[in-house]
Design goal:
By secondary structure, this protein is of the alpha+beta class. The chain is 52% helix and 21% strand.
Length: 282
């Protein structure tokens, strides 16, 4: 059974080691230290700061962080709102064994994310929506959503570890730094797909070579940065073709394509229909 807890003041707990969802709306500025199990920290409003494993991590609005089983110091100012999902080691072990046939302990790369894993973000947003708008629906769906997000983060982490093994990257700090760079790249592509994007400028910003960025991104996510951003653009265009009355030209520009001819060619290659044909078919 998944517990739901709510706090509006300074938490009194000394540990969080069971499966639960914790909603926090801080009426005062807080600083609290506790022993936690695996945790997903999602900030709904404001900023939360975490000190864990010799790292100082700042999580802003609509960002989330996955932490390992460890001692945590949490700091938040008055008015900060957040959602924490505490996942017990027993649950993590059961999911790992079911999907991958082993009981090796899961070790997450503790990196701040926003939209890098859209499936995880969708579940978090669903939980927040239900909490504020449909408490009955929340209690009906809470266990299913909790299990879904637990599976998603373990599947992603095992995939990341497998891909890093192929790259023969051993040191955990190196893995974390590289994964952080690739996560930042994915976030950038999600946020700026409608703009002109240069892999060279991104590689300079994050401090690794264009070739290495290209290779790492493909190893971790299964597609090149260009293939990934093209998929985002096509998905955006399909949505606009279905739900807006904007012209093909307007949709092409808003989706990051330079002109309608190029947009039509790329769209047909991926969808099997031209933009006009797609709009008429729906």
């Amino acid at each position: 059974m998944i517990q739901l807890e709510e706090i509006t003041s300074i938490p009194t707990f000394s540990s969080q080691l069971e499966n639960k969802i914790l909603y926090s709306d801080h009426s005062d500025t807080i600083s609290v230290q506790y022993q936690s199990t695996y945790t997903i920290k999602y900030v709904m409003d404001g900023v939360k700061r975490y000190h864990v494993n010799n790292q100082d991590l700042k999580v802003s609005k609509y960002e989330y962080l996955i932490l390992n089983n460890s001692q945590i110091i949490t700091e938040a100012k008055k008015g900060t709102k957040g959602l924490s999902l505490f996942l017990s080691p027993t649950l993590m072990d059961e999911i790992s064994h079911f999907y991958f046939g082993h009981h090796d302990p899961v070790k997450f790369l503790e990196v701040i994310q926003k939209n890098a894993n859209q499936k995880v973000k969708n579940v978090l947003d669903t939980l927040v929506y239900l909490y504020h708008n449909d408490k009955i629906g929340l209690h009906q769906q809470m266990e299913d959503l909790f299990m879904t997000i637990s599976e998603l983060i373990i599947q992603e982490q095992v995939s990341i570890d497998d891909n890093f093994k192929k790259l023969k990257i051993v040191r955990h700090n190196t893995k974390r730094a590289l994964y952080k760079s690739i996560t930042e790249t994915k976030e950038y592509l999600n946020d700026n797909f409608s703009d002109k994007i240069s892999l060279e400028s991104i590689s300079k910003d994050i401090g690794i070579s264009k070739y290495y960025l290209h290779r790492l991104f493909k190893e971790i996510h299964g597609s090149t940065p260009l293939e990934y951003v093209t998929a985002i653009r096509i998905a955006n265009a399909k949505n606009k073709l279905q739900y807006s009355k904007e012209s093909i030209f307007e949709i092409a520009i808003q989706s990051g394509f330079d002109n309608t001819a190029y947009f039509s060619n790329v769209f047909k290659k991926h969808v099997g229909l031209s933009p006009t044909q797609f709009r008429k078919a729906i």
